[in-house]
Design goal:
Layout: E1 4-7, E2 10-13, E3 20-23, H1 24-43, E4 53-56, E5 62-65, H2 68-74, H3 80-95, H4 100-119, H5 124-145, H6 153-164, H7 174-187, E6 199-205, E7 211-215, E8 217-221, E9 232-241, H8 251-255, H9 261-285, E10 289-292, H10 298-306, E11 310-312, H11 317-327, E12 331-332, E13 344-354, E14 357-365, E15 371-377, H12 380-403, E16 406-408, H13 412-425, H14 432-443, H15 445-453, H16 458-472, E17 476-480, E18 483-487, H17 489-492, E19 495-497, H18 498-517, E20 520-523
Parallel strand pairs: 6-15, 9-10, 9-12, 10-11
Antiparallel strand pairs: 1-2, 3-20, 4-5, 7-15, 8-14, 9-13, 13-14, 16-19, 17-18
Helix pairs in contact: 1-3, 1-4, 1-18, 2-3, 3-4, 3-18, 4-14, 4-18, 5-13, 5-14, 5-18, 6-7, 6-12, 7-12, 9-10, 13-14, 15-16
The structure holds adenosine-5'-diphosphate and magnesium ion.
Adenosine-5'-diphosphate binds at residues 45-48, 50, 68, 98-102, 162-163, 165-166, 409-410, 450, 477-479, 494, 496.
Amino acid sequence: MAQQRRMGGQPMFIMSEDSQRTQGRDAQSSNIMAGKAVAEAVRTTLGPRGMDKMLVDSGGEVVITNDGATILNEMDIEHPAAQMIVEVADSQEEEVGDGTTTAAVVAGNLLGEAEDLIEQDVHATTIVEGYHEASEIALEAIAEQVNEDGVDDDVLKQVAESSMTGKGTGGLTAASLAETVVEAIRHVETDAAVARDNVAVHTQVGASSNATELVPGIVFDEEPAHDGMPAEVEDASIAVLDVELGVRTGEIDAEYAIDSIDQLNTAIGAEESEVRGYAETVAESGADVVITTDDVDDRVSSFLASEGILLFENIGSSDAKDVVSATGATRVGALDDLEESDFGEADRVRSANYGDDDLAFIEGGAAAETVTVFVRGGTEHVVDELERAIGDALDVVATALDSGEVVPGAGATEIAIADKIRQEAAGIEGRKQLAVTAFADALDIVPRTLAANTGQDPIDALVDLRSAHESEGRAGLITDGEDVTIDDPLEYGVVDPADVKREAVESATEAATMIVRIDDVIAAE
Ligand code: ADP
Ligand code: MG
């Protein structure tokens, strides 16, 4: 459809003939519907009894997961409003590492409530104002819910465990994983902050049993360049190179036009001495472990092996970067520049075999307190989901430790927020009050969904939770093994970082209000 304006009698086209335009209520309701549909798609995965989703892409690749952000990203969503809900989950993942399903589900419900308000002729800008006001009250309510006892290792383990319940953790218990996770985060804690980035996760598929261990260093997939090399070097001086240790293919032909055996012998001789030169330079540098991102000639490897030097070739650039940050090495781009001051140091470098794979471990690096959670599992799907669960757990423990603030989980915080919003709504004038109340209703989706996913009646659960909240102050719908109880989540160790709740409220509000405000969709074909 072409848009036409007349200026001085001349028709002016401001949009291409091919663009699609939807306006007013139509635009609003189609956006709201799309946003709601996306949120609905992840609802059943919420909580400890949440189900998993199996996603199959066009190439037949299968992902089985319970993780909101992963599901939404794998779904290949095209609708622009729906895409905004995906962004809610993404920013949640980015900022705090957990609560993605919660944020998406709340955003979807805020849209659902907005739809009802629009039908009652509440203007979009009133809804937006009301939602913003309600989200401010929500943040106050979260602050009131923060556990005054702060966080210690036990609470951190509870945070880790709460974030992992309901995830497929293979044969491993959430409790044992939580222990490893907290140990890892404590390792990278400094006075200033928690260096979450210094915790890596390395997965290994195909080990006979599931296991996790904390490696005090980094792990990468690589075997020594030569069988004769030592499998382990203590107190290692490590050279990290971006240098090819060999004769570049094609170099010979370019330099020598070979037309006799003599010339060939000369060429081979020159090549040999060049290769020997590389090997000797490396050996004489004093490094006992050498890591290069490029190729290494077999003759160089063999010579270095005889010198007792451990060498890894063709290391990925990001692995090389990790080695550098763990050991304090300086990457060297030309062999002539290699000096002892470029070496990194580590307590131990070793190579170990796991089934079909060889792994390299660099432990006790001198420069940074890098640690790796080394996860082994029987199949790729198990290991992938374990990696996501552990990644989330590391994020939430880091978040909780950073701020020292945790709130009760299991829906208790959402119940408290909704309650506070409803109380304060009474003092808000005009139709905006309806929007503020609607925000509270939207938050009920969390306890309602936790109830539904544990086979409870959502309405009954909500009523019971509210009255328990009224009388006891803190009330969540706690899943404990086979039992579902309404009680104080803090007593059961069901806790979430306060920042996860804050981020969920903020990102859901932002996306919902942005979608509601749109009344004109103009799409290029
Ligand atoms: P999200 O992607 O939002 O983190 P999850 O599937 O991880 O979704 O579920 C998180 C919710 O489950 C939080 O509200 C958390 O408090 C709650 N939860 C965790 N453990 C329990 C439990 N044992 N009983 C009840 N709720 C729990
Ligand atoms: Mg979670």
